[in-house]
């Protein structure tokens, strides 16, 4: 599990979207039983603008899929999800955010409230945050 400190050192600040990226990455990797870095590729959608796009950094950190290696692809769609594809056997799942989590973030305003929410989200069980579909 990537620590919040490590994530902030890479990304520059602590926010809910960064944390969701971290957790979603770990969740997705487990679901398709893939190895980090080279064992999978991901496609992310709905993260075209800040602060949502902060999630992309969290996903890169937790999956090892990076822009540099080319195994993360940004899809142009308004719906927020990430596809996880196992490079060995092609197994694919789609992970989406639960609506209540999306709403919670949208109704959180201000720097310190966002940091508090980020820390709270980090302690959540992934099943409370995400939905996986085949
Ligand atoms: Zn950010």
UniProtKB/TrEMBL annotation:
Residues 10-107 form the Formylmethanofuran dehydrogenase subunit E domain. It comes from the Bacteria. InterPro entries: FmdEsu_dom, tRNA_methyltr_O. This is Formylmethanofuran dehydrogenase subunit E domain-containing protein. It comes from Candidatus Ghiorseimicrobium undicola.
């Amino acid at each position: 599990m990537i620590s919040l400190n490590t994530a902030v050192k890479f990304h520059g600040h602590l926010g809910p979207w960064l944390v969701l990226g971290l957790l979603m990455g770990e969740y997705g990797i487990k679901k398709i039983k893939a190895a980090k870095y080279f064992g999978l590729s991901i496609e992310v959608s709905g993260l075209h603008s800040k602060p949502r796009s902060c999630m992309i950094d969290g996903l890169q950190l937790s999956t090892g899929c990076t822009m540099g290696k080319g195994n993360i692809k940004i899809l142009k769609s308004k719906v927020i999800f990430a596809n996880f594809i196992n490079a060995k056997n092609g197994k694919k799942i789609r992970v989406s955010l639960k609506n209540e989590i999306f709403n919670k973030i949208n109704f959180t305003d201000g720097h310190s409230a966002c940091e508090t929410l980020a820390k709270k989200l980090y302690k959540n069980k992934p099943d409370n945050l995400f939905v996986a579909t085949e």
